[in-house]
Amino acid sequence: MGAAGADPNGGPAHLAAPADRLRAAAARFGTPVGVTAVQALADAAGELRAAFPDPWQRAYSLKANDVPAVVERLAALGLDANVVSRGEWAAARRAGLPNRRVTLEGIGKSAGDLRAAVRAAADGVPLRWVAVESAEELNALARLAERAGLGRGGRPPLDVLLRLNPDVSPETHAGLAVGHGASKFGMTETELSAAVAATPEAGSLAIRGVHLHVGSQLGAVDAWRDAVRRGLALLALLAAGRPGMDTLDVGGGFPVGAPGAVPTPARFAEEASRLLASIPSARLPRRLATEPGRFLVARAGLIVARVLHVRERPGWGRVVVIDAGMTELIRPMLYGAHHEIRALTSLGRSLDTGALRASAVDPARVDGPICEGTDTFGTHDLPPIRRDDLIAIAGTGAYGASMASTYNGRPAIPQVLLEADGSLVLGRPRGHLTGR
Ligand SMILES: Cc1ncc(COP(=O)(O)O)c(C=O)c1O
To answer: Of 296, 327, 347, which marks where a domain is finished?
Structure first.
């Protein structure tokens, strides 16, 4: 784990939904079931908007959770979309977002992804921009854009940002730190400047600015501030000779955690404001953008699971096996993420939060059902529990459903929205038992 407070679980110590609603979700849709509390999405979107008000552009990074019903709700809350593939782009479209509100970035863009971005521009419905990772990718995109006649005969060029590797030391889990110099993401200042110099100013691509992302679940603001400072300085330098470069996208990375344990979006915004205040107004970027994922969805999501086995193991004590595991939430296995687990029933009796506090709890290791020894959620305090009891795993809204797999022939779990009035709405049905 990285800096203090940078718990990569992204899960705060409370349930975003009342226990009775979670039990109702299990009764109606079966287990395991993913539940997203709509009110928690709205709260997070409101907090982000308050920290980064207009004219900041706020996009939701779909990689955190691409469940269509969740994307739709965030789009309805006014968020644009940040996507890394045609698959995520299609999810943004299904959520009603026009291309001008969608940005495409990512280290893994395929030739098909680039072709689709160029085709959309040629059809007169361009994406807001494509953020490019390397000189090779820029050349490939330019060749496609050239062939499609962009930038000629009344067809506007395709807007492009260049991703900077900010070469900072992100205060987060090593697996979530992407802004360090050795990472595969983005270009060095030298590479980026050379890419700008090699791109004609009035060609098929319009280089509009700089994109960066430091890492996810940032436990402090320092690396982010350093990265934004570098981005702003490089942009100012390049824009001096190229006035069309007017945009800085500062990526995502805002963490979630217990109040006071991690910096809020407002703290990050305060750092950005300080940096921007030190720049003469004539040299300020005209467009500023942010694209968080985790902050918007992590706390809203839970997984309700059912107990399959309870056994005593020498040296460990109680070991509980549940019907959700690394196939539904791989983060504990991938990053050692700790997600709080609460019992919703004990020996068949319903528990509410008050009763749970009052009841006797003992540590138990909670393991998933997958045929891998590493499929575990770690140790949690649980009351007396037996087969068929229900538990809730908290803070699973980010990088849960979007990282799910069908290993062991397990279908994708149903995704349910918990509306503000307490009703449950199926957002995505359970996948099929046969086939992927
Ligand atoms: C370029 C970029 N932007 C935004 C995000 C979203 O990050 P987070 O979910 O931490 O806000 C990521 C996450 O990997 C990313 O790589």
So the answer is: 296
